[in-house]
Amino acid sequence: MIRFLDAKIICLLIVLTPGLVLAQKQVSKPNVIFIYADDLGYGDLGAYGATKIKTPNLDRLSGSGIRFTNAHSSSATCTPSRYALMTGNYPWRVKGTDILSGDAALIIPLDRITLPKLFKNAGYNTAIVGKWHLGLGGGVKKDWSSRVSPGPNETGFDYSFIFPATADRVPTVFMENQRVVALDLNDPIEVDYRNKVGNDPTGKDNPELLKMKASPDHGHNNTIVNGIGRIGFMSGGQSARWVDEEISTTFLTMAKNYMKQNADRAFFLYYPLTEPHVPRMPATMFKGKSGLGYRGDAILQLDWTVGQILDEVEALGIKENTIIVFSSDNGPVLNDGYQDGAITQQNGHLPAGVLRGTKGSIFEAGTRVPFMISGPNIAKGKVSDALIGQIDLLASFSKLLNQNMPVAEAKDSQDLWSTLTGATKTGRKIYVEHSEGLALVKGDWKYIEPNAGVPYRKSTDTETGNSPEPQLYNLAEDIGEKNNLAKKFPDKLKELQKLLQLEKDKK
Fold first, then answer.
1. Which helix (H) or strand (E) holds 143?
2. Cβ distance 465 to 362 under 8 Å?
3. What are phi and psi of 175, to 5 degrees?
4. Do 33 and 271 contact (CB within 8 A), yes or no?
5. Distance between the two ends of the chain, CA-based, in angstroms?
6. pTM: predicted TM-score of the whole model, two decimal places
7. pLDDT of residue 130
8. What is the 3-state secondary structure (H, E, C) of 437-456?
9. What does DSSP say about strands 371-374 and 322-328: parallel, antiparallel, or unpaired?
10. Contact at 8 Å (CB) between 76 and 359?
11. What is the pLDDT of residues 214-258, one digit of tens each?
């Protein structure tokens, strides 16, 4: 009798609460949160050897999953790395994927698979909260007073809360589902990257209005917003302009709101942070706390933000069903446009750790970045030296989600899901690194093709790696890339040259 009544009660619950059953079915698929730092270096975190700065929350994430020591962005700068992440294709194959201005048109193809589309096809709700920098609209000229399309929503995100490019570029506004937030339509926005528009003061003409001075010859001396000169000119939109000290917490609030609203169904949250990209103007509670200038303070803010996300996952009761991935879009840079103490207060901190180069370099520091993954069915407390790329997330998640991925559309992405879970120690056989030129890594060996560009960029203190001579390094013995072995090992040089050419010849 009791069993019969129990059965009737269960049947009644199913009839009366179909949403509950549906939610349970959906949440059986793991949520995925991808946290993407901006200009964070290989040596900027405690888990990767930093001793001058403390990053307890990222160290916590590292200990709860797998930390990779040979993981790479596709490129040594931001826009191309984000393009590769979204599309599964090397950006150097496509024109127009260099660093974009704030008024650039969308560069993500709308008729191809993308990372968010992959999740949507698998029944996920998808969102981006944070930096976009992949262009908006169909051209440079835009009506910022209306919805700007196409953009992240058309590339596969159900929800978007972004700023268009970078924090040092205009327009300095937030956009929710591709509409400027808090815009007064009687004060329309105009943006121009060539000619001055409106009457706003500029850093060049009114340096006395700056609360953070620009570095010489960096271009950060155009329209002043919140006491900081930007790249490009902007007029209007006064009520919509952000306050730099509130950018990070604004994104965090929107990310947490999204997580709360979707905790009962499978979701994919792409959370690209602004730290420690310039202008580094962290919230007041972090200023002066690192002893490494505003760049160090921004890293403290980044680490705290990650901790807030980890805590929110636990508070929502979805920790056991949530995969968290953390990485950076390229390597570190100290002097990138503003006098913010990054150099004068470096105090022995090595943002690139043992690696040579910086952001914008073909040396390892340009693309070898922190990469951690944690979650269900992923090994805990492990370190892997497998060669992997962010470009591989598209194919790897297609394996997890049992989704067929059009190989012709994401031809450079490889399924490394077993590597990401720790089931295997094997990674990629070869990988192409990208800056002004190209390099190819195979096993312990790295070949850098000859390049006519400048070998050193004084403005950012960057060893670009450009050289008219071929370069060959054994990374197992010379991780700092100091000893060029091209003449000593001509056969190995030819082997890698041939492999790189084969990659370049792929259509």
1. none
2. yes
3. -130, 130
4. yes
5. 70
6. 0.94
7. 98
8. CEEEEECCEEEECCCCCCCE
9. antiparallel
10. yes
11. 999 899 999 999 999 999 999 999 999 999 999 999 999 999 999
